[in-house]
Amino acid sequence: MRVIITGGGTGGHVYPALEVATLAQEESDLVYFGSNRGMEGDACAQRGFRFHGFDSVPVYSYKSLAGVVALAKLMRASVAAKKMMLAMKPDVVFSTGGYSSAPVMRAAKLLGVPLAIHACDTIPGRSLRMFADYAKVITSTFRATKDILQGNVIRTGHPVRSELRNAISRRNPEENLIVVLGGSGGAKYLNEMVPQAARMLEGVEVLHSAGKAQFEGARHLISGIEDRYDMRPYFEADVMASVYQTATLAIARSGSGVSEFAMARLPSILVPLPTSADNHQLRNAQEFEQMGASTIANQETCTVEELASQINVWLKDKNKQESAALALSEWDMPNATFHIWSEVKNAAQ
Length: 349
Hints:
- The protein is of the alpha/beta class.
- The chain has two domains: 2-158 and 334-348, Rossmann fold, CATH 3.40.50; 163-331, Glycogen Phosphorylase B (Rossmann fold, 3-Layer(aba) Sandwich).
- 45% of the residues lie in helices and 16% in strands.
- Strand 12, helix 12 (280-290) and strand 13 form a beta-alpha-beta unit.
């Protein structure tokens, strides 16, 4: 079977696609289509996947010159993807969304190639929504997606990186150990607020991923508390595995990566990015808050004192932690990657 996998621009789209690709390559001839601008090319090179890149870029607005130029690039990328698809003759295209996937999904539709998509967030992004009607199957990470999208939506859970899931079998939380995760690009709000909140709390240790681009500008904020506050530019997979084994509480944005908190049975304080498309990060966080696994901190209104108070409540209330862990275990779907790949194969028939 010949398979094209696409999805990218950010890690939230790329890593789930790569996890499915790792399983799919065992029984298919697989090529990853993506953007030359995104991180997917390097990620594919590291994992040994064949990669075809296009000069696609995000379209933030159709009303600006930059938007018109970006749209033109997307159309050219679609033509290039169509030519490659004609040559490859794939049996199915699998997409996790992101701007780099739009030209590939458009080419699949034009050529009548079966399409399967995975919605990583409660509210799928614009590119996925554009082709949801054409897709033979839509798998989803969140429960709420089925109420938002029409069509054949099947909740499979999220394809979490296998090295992380394998590490959780040895989970042994350390008391009062907090992990701070701002996503692949970092989060300025978390970089500024959490160190201040940590100064108000005694006996707390923090591991903080500040983002490669923001680390140098943020590291001075932990001056004087370096003995209990470890800030780094980025956590590699082995460090993330160790973090999930030992952390008591996560403080993070609320992209699809919150699925890893469910895998680790790790309660969290979630700070949705106010500018996320369709406010999907808030909807993700609400699903976790409603089941008692997280509390939400509003970036625009939450003070340092309020954040410190939320942290203190989670760390002091063992019953709250245990209740969250139970809810997360019920939400988590350990066989997500296998389930998704099964649905992709069914779509190819």
